[in-house]
Design a protein that fits this description.
40% of the residues lie in helices and 18% in strands. It has 354 residues and is α/β, with parallel strands linked by helices. This is IS630 family transposase.
């Protein structure tokens, strides 16, 4: 049953607005139909005739006649709709975050989406995954860190960084360390063709050992070039022999040598007295990452050692020597950009003792 038609009286201002709406090419169809309904109603047309001309149901015409008669142009706008109430709210998000701060169930190393959903009880696992993704929380990725407890961390770190950023004039700054026990492993290698036609390089899991070598290396900070030699062991005598070869490479030059806190690097006062042009600088405890040669060791591992096979220890040593020569041909110094040095402990640091 159609309600009794309401009379519609248009002001000049409202008529101009509605007529402009009908003429505009960007007016939405719903707004265009509402404007035409009100204009035709103001001309005295019946509800049924308006419905037939506009192409809508008579009840729609009656609705917008009443809405305009009661509220004017504002009545032609859509009213806010409450919509469906969300199942999960901010309270749910807080519950997930609170649960992540707790240890995982007994026997598990870390939380997973299903474990979180099971512990919450009333939250679907798909929502748990969406929440974790939206907050960029990765339950699988792991970061490790080493917090230095050296009381002189700031002074030692500033000393090392100072050598990188502002090295002494007419002096050579070297980063020295050793990479011990590099294994000469012989593996079966070749190409593997998958059913989809893709070819991959690979190696077998089984291998044969042909001994190990210890690589002593010195990185010249100003040029990025490497001085390296091999040794069977990494004792004090091998370290000092390597330092003798380094000093011979730079005769009559002041050398500032950056070392970590390995025992063989310390208590070498007699050797230092015999070489007054050499000064040792030690990184803070548990902070050997400050030594730039560690970066080069990582490059060596990735570009030269990973995925290779050697049939003898000599072949391994020659392989490393060839890489050092090739690296030195294109060596560039590492750029140290961080100038401020400060010691800051992790907030809420927890150490669990089992």
């Amino acid at each position: 049953m159609i309600p009794e038609a309401r009379e519609v009286h248009l002001s000049r201002k409202d008529r101009k607005v509605l007529e402009a709406c009908c003429r505009s090419p960007v007016t939405l169809q719903r707004d265009l139909k509402r404007a035409r309904i009100v204009l035709l109603a103001a001309d005295g047309r019946s509800t049924r005739s308006i419905a037939k001309e506009v192409g809508v149901q008579p009840r729609i015409v009656s609705l917008w006649r009443h809405r305009y008669a009661d509220h004017g142009l504002e009545g032609l706008q859509d009213k806010p709709r409450p919509g469906k109430q969300p199942i999960y709210t901010k309270t749910t998000d807080k519950r997930i975050l609170k649960l992540l701060d707790k240890p995982p169930p007994q026997g598990f190393a870390r939380w997973t989406g299903p474990l979180l959903a099971e512990a919450l009880g009333d939250v679907d696992v798909q929502y748990v995954w969406r929440f974790l993704r939206s907050h960029k929380i990765d339950l699988v990725a792991r970061k490790s860190w080493c917090e230095s407890n050296d009381p002189n961390f700031t002074a030692k770190a500033a000393d090392v960084v100072g050598l990188y950023v502002a090295p002494p004039a007419k002096a050579i700054v070297l980063c020295v360390d050793e990479k011990p026990s590099i294994q000469a492993l012989e593996r079966v290698q070749g190409y593997l063709k998958l059913p989809n036609g893709r070819a991959l390089t690979g190696q077998s899991h089984d291998y044969k050992r042909h001994g190990t070598t210890t690589l002593f290396a010195a990185l010249e900070v100003a040029t990025g070039k490497i001085i390296a030699t091999h040794s069977k062991r990494r004792r004090r005598v091998e370290f000092l022999d390597f330092m003798n070869s380094v000093t011979a490479t730079f005769p009559n030059r002041k050398l500032h040598v950056i070392l970590d806190n390995l025992n063989t690097h310390k208590k070498n006062e007699d050797w230092l007295k015999a070489h007054p042009n050499v000064q040792f600088h030690f990184t803070p405890t548990s902070a050997s990452w400050l030594n730039q040669v560690e970066v080069w060791f990582s490059i060596l591992q990735g570009q030269s050692l990973s995925g290779t096979s050697f049939t003898s220890l000599k072949q391994l040593q020659e392989h490393i020597d060839a890489y050092v020569n090739a690296y030195n041909d294109r060596a560039e110094p590492f750029v140290w950009t961080k100038k401020k040095v400060r010691q800051r402990r992790f907030k809420g640091r927890r150490i669990t003792q089992l």
